[in-house]
Amino acid sequence: MNTTELLYQGKAKSAYLTEDPDLLVLAFRDDTSAFDGEVIEQLEAKGAINNQFNAFIMQKLGEAGIPTHFVKQLSPTEALVKRLEMIPVECVARNRAAGSLVRRLGVEEGLMLDPPLFELFLKNDALHDPMITEHHVEAFGWATRDEMDVMHRLTLEVNAVLSKLFLAADLTLVDFKLEFGRFHGEIVLGDEFSPDGCRLWDVHSGEKKDKDRFRQGLGGVLDAYREVGARLGIVFDT
Ligand code: TMP
Ligand code: ASP
User: Which of 114, 152, 157, 175 is most deeply buried (CB count within 10 A of its CB)?
Assistant: First the structure.
């Protein structure tokens, strides 16, 4: 697929237009950011690992009936995706307390959340991704009531599918963030699913196997990502 111009450069991925107005090429870079872009470092091969991780997960979600933007993997670091009109809202599902939930409510990290918690954040680094409600989404016109209902339902469906998948690899899916967009009027999962945007803990040791290793300076970030991939059966080409 020939790419034309750069459409958008995010913190970890770049999106390129193609000759087909409905398709984009997503290029996963090695840039790794935390704290709303305050810290940015290069982690060698992270782009390739996350692209291949994301391809595996998006395929699994597609097989489970979740509409996603993923079309196919093009190269170790690139994927072909449907071009969505993105909704500037981050949908988070949580099975255990961690991260901002612990800071906000003062609960213990690891507390079980049953039923899983669904939260929304506005995608805005300058404002530090403030928490919002479904009413804000509707009132500000970021999505309609029906679209919001679909994003909520799909996030919980993704949680059910992936919690099971990771548990079979002895990993607890603690929480994760999804972004959705519209494709010819339909709500479709966009962005990526990788250890950059979720928390995964080893079931036995509780060891963190996700981007918290980077955020908290624990080291071994990509070794952890590779290990998670290997446990899922992903053979990385990096
Ligand atoms: P939080 O605990 O910082 O609110 O994050 C919840 C989950 O969502 C965690 O797995 C990290 C992910 N996340 C992102 O990947 N990017 C973001 O901008 C935010 C707010 C969360
Ligand atoms: N991806 C966001 C950032 O760069 C949030 C995070 O992962 O901590 O800052």
Answer: 175
Question: 177-202 burial, b if ≥16 CB within 10 A, otherwise e?
Answer: bbbbbebeeebbbbbbbbbbbbbbbb
State which H helix or E strand residue 7 sits in: strand 3-9
Ligand 2 centroid – CA 33 distance (Å): 5
Residue with CA closest to ligand 1 atom 15: 197
The CATH number assigned to the domain holding 38 equals 3.30.200.20
Number of folded domains that form the chain: 2
- Ligand 2: does its nearest atom lie under 6 Å from the Cβ of 41? no
Instruction: Give how far the C-alpha of residue 145 lies from the chain's centroid of Cα atoms, to the nearest Å.
Output: 23
* Phi and psi torsions of 14, nearest 5°: -120, 145
What three-state secondary structure class fits 11? coil
Residues 152 and 38 grouped into a single domain:
no
Q: Which of 9, 11, 36 to mutate to test the pocket of ligand 2 (most atoms within 8 A of CB)?
A: 36
What pLDDT was estimated at residue 4? 76
What is the CA(178)–ligand 1 centre distance, in A?
A: 9
d(CA 197, ligand 2 centre) in Å: 8
Q: What is the pLDDT of residue 2?
A: 74
Reading the block at residue 181, the tokens are 């967009």
Domain that holds residue 133: 85-220
Residues 36 and 115 in one domain: no
- The chain-wide mean pLDDT, for the chain, equals 97
Closest CA to 213 of 230, 229, 195, 231: 195
Residue 204 inside a domain? The answer is: yes
